Amino acid sequence: MYKYCLECDWHASTAAGYTEHEVSKAAIEHFVETGHTVDSLRLPPPVVIEN
Ligand SMILES: [Zn+2]
Questions:
Q1: How far is the CA of 45 from the centre of ligand 1 (A)?
Q2: Which residues lie near ion ligand 1 (Cβ < 5 Å)?
Q3: The pTM is what?
Q4: Which residues pair with 45 in a beta bridge?
């Protein structure tokens, strides 16, 4: 899961080692603190490249 702010460069991602719960919580905290709109993106599963 990837969450990002539409109004500043804030973002949080499970790719950075956070759990989905932590990313969601961080997004809510950013919204509460700044009133900014946070949008989210589902990360696609890793692509397996076959030869
Ligand atoms: Zn923001």
A1: 26
A2: 5, 7-8, 10, 34, 36
A3: 0.75
A4: none
Q: How far apart are CA 10 and CA 31, in angstroms?
A: 10
Residue 31, class by beta-carbon neighbours within 10 Å (0-12 exposed, 13-18 middle, 19+ buried)? middle
**Ligand 1 centroid vs 23 CA: distance in angstroms?**
14
Kind and range of the H or E run holding 25:
helix 20-34
Query: Where do the structural domains in the chain lie, given as residue ranges?
Result: 2-41
pLDDT digits (tens, 9 = 90+) for 1-51: 899 999 999 999 998 889 999 999 999 999 999 999 999 987 666 677 777
